[in-house]
Each structure stands twice: as C-alpha cells, then as structure tokens.
Automatic annotation (TrEMBL):
Keywords tagged on the record: ATP-binding, Nucleotide-binding
InterPro entries per record: AAA+_ATPase, ATPase_Atu1862_pred, HerA-like, HerA_central, P-loop_NTPase
Gene3D superfamilies, sorted: P-loop containing nucleotide triphosphate hydrolases
Coiled coil: none
Pfam family, one: DUF87
Source organism of the structure: Roseicella aquatilis
Limits of the AAA+ ATPase domain: 24-311
UniProt GO molecular function: ATP binding
Protein name per Swiss-Prot or TrEMBL: ATP-binding protein
Top-level taxon of the source organism: Bacteria
C-alpha cells in the first residue's frame, strides 16, 4: 500500500510529499542549526505518519511527549527505569506494536546515552516474527552517535554508538527505519550519517557544514552559500522518498504543541531601584550574623616547615603475601562477588557500578592486600557469571579452558566459559537466554549471536541431535555438552 506523507509545500506551490514505504527502506537524515525548524519538521512527519506505521521517538528534551494526548503514544520516563527495564520495554514495544516516546529529559548526558542504547538494543534484538515496520526517530542524534570523544565513560559511548550504528546500518531488514536529526553533520559519526539516502537540509552557517550539506545533495560548492539564507521552516530535500533532484520546501502546520519552543519577549517588571536592591542584595538568614575574622595566613616557608615536622615516619615494608594468603584472599573476593551477583538484576547492571559495589563490600569486610583493579575485576566477574565453582577451578583441565578463553575478545569470554563449564560437568548445552545473561543482556538474539561468533572463530562447533537440541563441542579440548534446548529459559 503506497502512503504519501504531506510535509508542506514546495516553492512552486505543489505539495511536498514523502513516500512512506520508500522511507522505510532508505532512512532519513535531517540537519540544521538550532532554531531552523528541525523539531517542527519531525513533528509534522510523525503526526502525518502516525495512523500508518508504528513509531518510536528518542526524545532527549521531552519535546514530543504531547503526541500522547493526540495520537495515543506511550510516554516512558527513562529516568524512572533501569537499563534492563528499558531493554525489556523495547522488546515489548515491538511485540505489541505500540508507538512510544522515550523521554530522556530527566537524565544527564551519560544516562541518556546508556538508556537510549538499552532501549534501542531491545527494539533491535527482538525475535524475527516481530520484525514489522517501525519508524525510529532520534532527535539530537549527535548526542547518541558523536563523531569524536565526549566527556562520558567509554563504555556508555560505545554502547550508544553501537546501538545507533545497528539502527542505521542493519535495521532495514528488521523493519526499522531510522530518522535522525542533528544540528551539525560534523558532530555526527560518519558511519551513522552515511547510511541515510534521504536528506532534508535546513539553515546552517559554518563553512564545513554547508559544504557537507551541498555535497550530500549533489550541489556545486558555489551553491553552498544558499544554506545561510534559508528561512526557519524551509529545507532542501533530496532522496528516493522525497525527490530525485534537490527541491526547496516549507514545512506545514502541526496539530500538537512543542515544549521546545523558546520563550517569547515580554516586558520587564517596573521595580523601583530601592526595592530591587532589597530583593537582590538582602543577606541570607545564615549570613545575618557577621563571620569571625580569619587568622592571618601563614607564609609558604612556615607551611613547609610545619608539614616537614608533622611528617610521619615511613612504615616498614610488609613481606609479600604467601601463596596460601593469595588463595584465601581470592576465595574471599569470589564469595563477596557472588553475594553481589545474587541479586537477580545484578547481571544487567553496568560493570562500573558492580565494581564500585564490590569495592565497598571489600572495605566493609576489611579484606587485606591490594584492591583489585577494573581489568582484574572483569576477569573475576566472567567466572562468577559463568557459574564456575571452586571445585571446577581445581580440575587440571580447567586451566586449558581459561587458556582458550583468553584468546577471545573480552565480551565473548563469558559465553565460552559457560559452554566449557557445561561440557566439563556433562550438563545440557546452555540456552540462548542463559548465554545472553552471562553477557549482561536479556535478549535471546544476543546469546544466539555470541554462539555464532564463537563458531566463526573456530572456538566451538554446534550440531543438533535427533530431537533438534543443540550440542556444543569445544574445538581443541574436544569436550562436548549434553543436548540442550536453545529456546529454553535461563536457569
């Protein structure tokens, strides 16, 4: 069924139409400086397409929550949800075909990146029979797919950029049509922007942005200056869903109100100078009493002399711990970490959060010796998530499993060790959901992808038995798991 969305009017007075079916296959990039009308354009597109296609809006400023009143979108306040909860919400949104607005307004930049990544991962990893058409609109996309370094944890940046890359590069086969809007193309990751085939370019002033906009639209460099002259609400359009040649259009009116509009001019209050002085300069209650005068500051030589006199004697060097002490300390660390991971939701928390919780509990237990650093903690965490017991570690052949796992990427070692543990214990092959849990996910697709990766790396080989259950063989050691149902629930 062909559906055309009326975005407004072209300069020649004809309707500016967008082919919705073509958009679902080719994706859209909207670019323009702040105040050029990007959000207004997205709102027009969302309003006109709402009756025809499911929608998900990643909304960093809460501008699109008003769609709920008019079109019945579900508004999810991301600040009130965990990352695990948002991943589950993403899966259920696709399963039940509910249009949704993910409101990220109450989170800081890093929190927005983590929560948006979790939600997009849930949408992306849903089972194949739920791959129905869905329009995924990401406003201020440069926040979630930055082209350079940002002042957030590297883990959050990589998760957000990976989710955006999956949306734009691999989303088409899953029915996901990415629509991304950004203030500056230079701030948006190139591998994300490059996947769009439709473009709506608004007003911009920087030479580099004008040049890139002109290049994307196939215009000559001397024509790039025209982007400075575009009025608010006017865009240059190009793409298989819009027009085969660059055309100018003006966006039409919208039905819902935006919370992103700037405040209008209003007259200043008529406040007499004395009243203004009393309002602004009156001391706070805690400052009503005069503060005591400070003693004169000591000179730098006096401070250095006092510090030298107060310096404690260097402690005597402690002897290195014995092998028995190291083994006891490691057993205590594993016990503490297993206590942390006893919470059902702990496997889905960020590693940095688990690390802080683990360090705090070690201090409470007054564990002696040097604290673990983050890489050592990650190695310990993989063992706990894989369910490795002290008895299993004592077996001579377990060292071989650790050696093979060390040759794999860090984020796949847990899946390999889980399979190795099942093989050594003669247990059934773990399900996709059980493998995903070791990787910190609730998506069967994530577990299935990990198994496929290990097969491509020649680390394991999988085959079905007569009943269709999976048997995994570890290449090298030759160990085999018992048959197990890949679709079973996690233990």
């Amino acid at each position: 069924m062909a559906v055309s969305i009326d975005l407004g009017r072209k300069d020649n007075g004809q309707p500016a139409l967008l082919d919705l079916e073509e958009l679902l296959a080719t994706r859209l990039l909207v670019q323009g400086n702040s105040g050029c009308g990007k959000s207004h354009l997205l709102r027009r597109l969302l309003e006109r397409s709402a009756p025809h296609v499911q929608q998900a809006i990643i909304d960093p400023e809460g501008d699109f929550t008003s769609l709920a009143d008019r079109f019945g979108h579900l508004v999810i306040d991301a600040a009130e949800q965990t990352e695990q909860g948002l991943a589950l919400a993403g899966e259920r949104v696709r399963q039940h075909r509910v249009s949704v607005v993910l409101n990220l307004e109450g989170s800081d930049i890093e929190g927005q990146m983590r929560r948006a990544a979790a939600f997009l991962d849930g949408i992306f990893a849903v089972e194949r029979h739920y791959w129905t058409p869905m329009l995924v609109v990401v406003d201020e996309a440069q926040l979630f797919a930055p082209s350079g370094g940002v002042e957030v944890a590297e883990e959050a940046r990589r998760a957000s950029l990976g989710a955006m890359t999956d949306l734009m590069c691999r989303g088409r086969k899953r029915g996901l049509a990415g629509v991304i809007a950004t203030q500056r193309l230079a701030k948006l990751a190139k591998n994300v922007a490059a996947e769009a085939s439709n473009f709506l370019m608004g007003r911009t002033f920087l030479d580099i942005d004008m040049a890139r906009a002109a290049d994307l639209l196939g215009m000559e460099k001397r024509q790039a200056e025209m982007f400075r002259d575009l009025e608010r609400g006017r865009f240059m359009a190009l793409g298989p869903a819009l027009a085969r040649r660059p055309v100018a259009l003006r966006v039409g009116e919208v039905e819902t109100e935006s919370r992103g509009a700037g405040p209008g001019l209003m007259p200043l209050p008529e406040t007499p100078p004395e009243a203004a002085r009393a309002l602004i300069l009156t001391a706070a209650p805690s400052e009503a009493t005069p503060r005591p005068r400070r003693a004169p500051a000591a000179s730098a030589p006096d401070i250095l002399a006092q510090l030298a006199a107060a310096r404690p004697a260097a402690p005597a060097a402690l002897p290195p711990p014995t092998a028995e002490e190291e083994a006891e300390r490691r057993r205590a660390q594993l016990a503490i970490l297993r206590t942390v991971m006893a919470d059902p939701g702990a496997a889905f928390r960020p590693v940095q959060s688990l690390f802080q919780d683990f360090q705090l509990r070690c201090r409470i237990e007054m564990l002696p010796g040097r604290p673990l650093d983050l890489p050592a903690f990650r190695r310990l965490l993989v063992l706990v998530l894989a369910g490795v017991t002290e008895e299993l570690e004592a077996r001579p052949d377990w060292a071989e499993a650790l050696e093979h796992a060390a040759a794999l990427p860090e984020d796949r070692q847990g899946a390999y060790l889980l399979l190795a543990r099942a093989a050594l214990e003669g247990a059934p092959c773990p399900s996709d959901l059980a493998i995903a849990r070791v990787l910190g996910s609730v998506s069967r697709g994530r577990g299935r992808a990990a198994v496929e990766f290990l097969e491509k790396q020649n680390a394991i080989a999988c085959r079905p038995d007569a009943a269709g259950r999976r048997i995994a063989t570890l290449i090298g050691p030759g160990w085999e798991t018992a048959p197990g149902d890949p679709e079973a629930a996690a233990a």
